[in-house]
Amino acid sequence: MKIKGNSVSSAEPEDQRKDKGKVNIAVYCGSSPGNKEIFCEDIKKLGNWIGANGHTLVYGGCKTGLMGAIADSVLEAGGKVIGVLPDVPVIKARTHGGLTEYIETDTMAERKTKMIELSDAFIALPGGIGTYDEITEILSLSSLRIVKGPVIFYNTEGYYDIMKALLDNIVNNGFGKDEYFSRVLFSNDIKEIAKCIEG
Fold first, then answer.
1. Whole-prediction pTM value?
2. 139 contacts: CB under 8 Å, gap ≥ 6
3. Rounded-to-integer distance, Cα 10 and Cα 169, Å
4. Does some domain include residue 1?
5. Does some domain include residue 148?
6. What's the mean pLDDT in 173-190?
7. Which of 29, 44, 55, 127 is deepest in the core (most CB within 10 A)?
8. What is the residue-averaged pLDDT of the chain?
């Protein structure tokens, strides 16, 4: 694993971050912008909030689409950005040039694991199959209490209504319990999301 950059606060232990009221927030979203302007508008709102409140973004390190927009908005608001990228040429070619810290992993699986290790809260915004893959793993780990932070679906334009219906269907058919998803929030209200993260 290669680490580049010079970010002291991003490497602080979780208890030290939380004592200072700072949170490392993993964001999962598309490397494409989607076809609605509001996707980019909402991700910039989230990025501005993360940066302005001294939190750190942990994400996949890409410069394009919604991924690039979240990194740009955090940096513009004075925040720190940790990019975690696998040693995959097609992905590395899209590396964001302004990362506070760059972590390279050998595989996609290691990338997901590293992002989880670094993060205190997890947010999914609109994205493709990769985004669904990442956030469903978080849901599984959360249901087992392996991941203890909040799991948030930033539900722009009802994008994640289908995921909410899926979780309801799991519970209604006896394959899960409400308590498994007690730390899951579906919302497009930045104030509600901030309260969920900061308490």
1. 0.90
2. 151, 167, 181, 184
3. 38
4. no
5. yes
6. 96
7. 29
8. 91
